[in-house]
Amino acid sequence: MASTAPVRVRFAPSPTGRLHVGGLRTALYNYLFARKHEGDVVLRIEDTDQARSVRGAEDDIRDALSWVGLDYDEGPDQGGEYAPYRQSERTEHYREYAQMLIEAGRAYYAFDTEGELEEMREGNRAYDGSTRRQMRNSLTLSDAEVDRLVDAGDYVVRLKVPRQESARFDDVVRGSVSFDTSEIDDQVLLKSDGMPTYHLANIVDDHLMDISHVIRGEEWLSS
């Protein structure tokens, strides 16, 4: 590895049930990588989807990791410098960064109703740079109307994905990876209940917790 920064990895399961073998495999790879490089393992609980969270699942996850001998250095049960380690307890961070993106012109408020979104889906259209100007959001409405709707609280925050650009990053396994931004929707960052989506919460937490390497299944590469 070329970087001299301390190695910090995270295993971040959702407490939606018992830990399955695929999740345990991911935890093992993170554990082995961190221990090889004398780094730290962080257990972070992704519990922002409260409707799917299962009572007792977090305890089951910790018990499973303990049973196979995968210890971690920081987590919700033992704390650490970057606490708290449950995403449901970190919502102020996500709202702060969402607001920063809005002020920088990288995100916007969207006020579309479920009916309007369903009509878009039925028309096989994506919520992106080609359609956002036709929808009800802070890019199309007056400032006064935006302020009124934001005060009412019925909105989501979407990422303003640039058109016809290349999003590129370096992957230790795959090398240089790039995606055409024209193929990416304006993803929701903050939901109408004020909770973040995966797209926002993970990148904010990885940044604030100084995570150096993200080791997950390849199906998450595009995320």
Task: Give structural notes.
The chain contains six helices and seven strands; from the N terminus they run E-H-E-H-H-E-H-H-E-E-E-E-H. The chain is of the alpha+beta class and 223 residues long. The strands form three sheets. The chain has a three-stranded antiparallel sheet with strand order 3-4-7. A two-stranded parallel sheet has the order 1-2. It has a two-stranded antiparallel ribbon with strand order 5-6.
Characteristics of this structure?
two-stranded parallel ribbon, three-stranded antiparallel β-sheet, Rossmann fold, 223 residues, Glutamyl-tRNA Synthetase, domain 3, globular, alpha+beta, 2 domains
**What is the spatial order of strands in the main beta sheet?**
3-4-7
Name the CATH class of the largest domain. Alpha Beta
Output the CATH homologous superfamily of the largest domain.
Glutamyl-tRNA Synthetase, Domain 3
Order of helices and strands: EHEHHEHHEEEEH
Could you name the ranges where pLDDT drops below 50 across 5 or more consecutive residues? none
Number of helices: 6
Total of domains: 2
Termini separation: 23 Å
Major beta-sheet overview: 3 strands, antiparallel
Instruction: Briefly note the structural class of the backbone.
Output: alpha+beta
Q: What is CATH's topology name of the largest domain?
A: Glutamyl-tRNA Synthetase, domain 3
Offer a quick outline of the entry.
With 223 residues, the chain is α+β, with helices and mostly antiparallel strands.
